[in-house]
Amino acid sequence: MSVGVLAFAGAVAVVVGILIGAIGIGGVLLVPMLTYVLGISIHVAIATAMFSYLFTGLVGAFEYARRGSVNWSKGLWLCLGGMPGGYLGAMTAWSTPGIVLETVIGTLVFVSGLQALRPAASQDAQGGDLKPPVLILIGLFTGFASAITGTGGPLVLVPLLLWLKVPALMAVGLSQVIQIPIAVLATGGNLTFGHVDFVLGLALSMVLVGGVVIGARVAHQVSRDTLKRIIAVALLATGGAMLARAASLVF
Question: What is the span of the domain harbouring residue 28?
């Protein structure tokens, strides 16, 4: 593999890390990069990406927690749902194509981007007063969808929480935390039913976490409205790209 290819892959990983740290969304770029740039099979790419999210989650959660941007009570319930979801998603990923789920997630992400563009008052007024059973179900779906697609918890969780009117910074903070249990359980499932490239995963993680630290600082320096607009644009672009990819696989 050429130096140029490795340098490009490293640059993409830095960008992904910054996006994960700043807006929680970026993991969707990681699996395509591993597959199309490094030539890794899709299933191993998903499993390796999920392993790397353990480290982005740990660093991201620390960065947000030390700035007081993690709601631990909500995070606990989300993680309780995310753990079995992550394992089930990893198990399913090795035997089932993710085209239908990818279409559903792409639609959710795109529509949530439109929702995030609405006036700030309608988004933040209620503060996301979600009950534990709802949070567990959200965590379960997030874990399953993240593990089966290799996108990481934030891509699924952030738009869901924004849709439910959780403040943007809180949503991103919670998305950092949920990466940890999902990554652990998904990695266990991938080891049971398939393969994880730990060497590549560790190398990838070292690059990603540097980006996460930068991204977390950016998220806390911009205004809530600016952060929300950035997230909205990222959601629209990501959802559109996922839907276009799903359509290309079908047609």
Answer: 3-250
Domains held by the chain: number:
1
What is the rounded CA–CA span in Å between residue 6 and residue 196? Answer: 20
Cα–Cα distance for residue pair 27/153, rounded to 1 Å: 9
Report the alpha-carbon distance of residue 225 to residue 204 in Å, rounded.
Answer: 32
Q: Are 28 and 154 in contact (CB under 8 A)?
A: no
- For tokens 């998305």, the residue is 175
Nearest to 126 by CA among 166, 162, 163, 158: 166
Integer Cα distance of 99 and 245 in angstroms? 9
Nearest to 134 by CA among 168, 157, 109, 150: 157
C-alpha to C-alpha distance for 12 and 34, rounded to whole angstroms: 10
The residue to which tokens 């035997």 are assigned:
95
Q: How far is CA 195 from the centre of its chain?
A: 21
Q: Over the Cα atoms of the chain, what is R_g? A: 16
- Assign 125 a pLDDT band (cuts: 50, 70, 90): very low
DSSP per-residue codes, 11-46: HHHHHHHHHHHHHS--GGGHHHIIIIIS---HHHHH
Between CA 217 and CA 213 the distance in angstroms is 6
State how far the Cα of 26 lies from the Cα of 42, in Å rounded to an integer.
17
pLDDT in the model for residue 153: 86
- For 13-59, the pLDDT digits (tens) are 898 899 889 888 777 778 878 887 888 887 888 899 999 999 999 99
